[in-house]
Write a structure and sequence with these properties.
The chain has ten helices and ten strands. By secondary structure, it is α/β, with parallel strands linked by helices. Strands 1-2-4-3-5-6-9-10 form an eight-stranded mixed β-sheet, with helices on both faces. A two-stranded antiparallel ribbon has the order 7-8. It is globular.
């Protein structure tokens, strides 16, 4: 396999950072990362998929990694991600693709697939079958939190990291098992020089540190799941994130199956690339 190739693709008015791992002619797999993650985090999985004969493509969502941020007054809502994906897919591959999403990326991918599967062959959701729902009585509180957190981001400067070691330490707060080699690889690609050239800052838009005002409706999300008419693989982690009604959500899929990766937490693609790639290759082989 040749080394991955990076490019820039404009979709929905935003420049997206794209990485492609060329493998073979078994089909294109589009890999969509989760919240505050980056396209490069798929590298280990993508290399295994390419070795199995697939072409793997990953991109940074808007406001993440090396992709562009929203303009002044903009924000990051699921409909924005879905529209980005709709405009990205025909620029990433010809014909139908196997769409894979992790966490937030999985939720966006499932909403897209529940809207249209014209460009899809299969859908895989890795720890990404939607967050916990919120009742309407919480909406005013979420709007209040939105106002407070957006003001806070505007008033506070970005936290400057001393070096990559400090960046890795920050990443270990959520993922204590993150090793030095993978940690430095991800930290180097998740950070950029701080303003003034001293130290580093994480590359995501600080607006991601705010509270979205929009509650998540399980009922509306269920309507998306019911409309997905391609085969769906739902991948969970034995120590990962699970919503209380996960089984009920999976049951809404017309053609869905589940698999669990043992011994890992939420970041399955970071810590279990062999098991994840094997599950993907087995599933996609049935729907080539």
């Amino acid at each position: 396999m040749t080394e991955p190739v990076e490019s820039r693709v404009v979709a929905n008015g935003i420049e997206h950072h794209v990485i492609a791992w060329e493998g073979g002619d078994r089909g294109t797999i589009v890999l969509c990362h989760g919240f505050l993650d980056i396209a490069w985090s798929w590298d280990a999985v993508a290399r295994r998929l390419a070795a199995a004969g697939f072409r793997a493509v990953a991109f940074d969502w808007r406001g993440h990694g090396e992709s562009g941020w929203v303009g002044a007054g903009g924000y990051y809502h699921f409909p924005d991600y879905v529209l980005d994906l709709d405009e990205l897919l025909p620029r990433l591959a010809t014909g139908r693709v196997h769409l894979v999403g992790h966490s937030m990326g999985g939720t966006a991918c499932s909403m897209y697939a529940g809207t249209t599967t014209e460009r899809l062959r299969t859908l895989t959701l890795i720890e990404g079958i939607g967050p916990v729902g919120h009742g309407p009585e919480l909406v005013p509180d979420r709007f209040g939190a939105f106002l407070r957190t957006v003001r806070g981001v505007r008033d506070e400067p970005a936290r400057v990291l001393r070096d990559l070691d400090e960046a890795v330490a920050r990443m270990r707060v959520q993922n204590p098992e993150l090793g030095d080699e993978l940690g430095r690889f991800l930290a180097a690609r998740s950070t950029r020089p701080a303003p003034g050239g001293h130290g580093l800052v994480f590359g995501f838009d600080p607006l991601h540190r705010t509270r979205s005002p929009m509650p998540f409706s399980v009922e509306a999300y269920g309507a998306f799941l019911r409309r997905i008419d391609v085969p769906v693989l739902v991948v969970g982690a034995s120590r990962g994130f699970r919503v209380p009604d996960e089984a009920e959500r999976v049951a809404l899929l017309r053609d869905g199956r589940t698999v669990e990766v043992e011994g890992v937490g939420h970041m399955v693609h970071w810590f279990a690339p062999d098991a994840l790639a094997a599950a993907l290759v087995g599933f996609l082989a049935e729907h080539g």
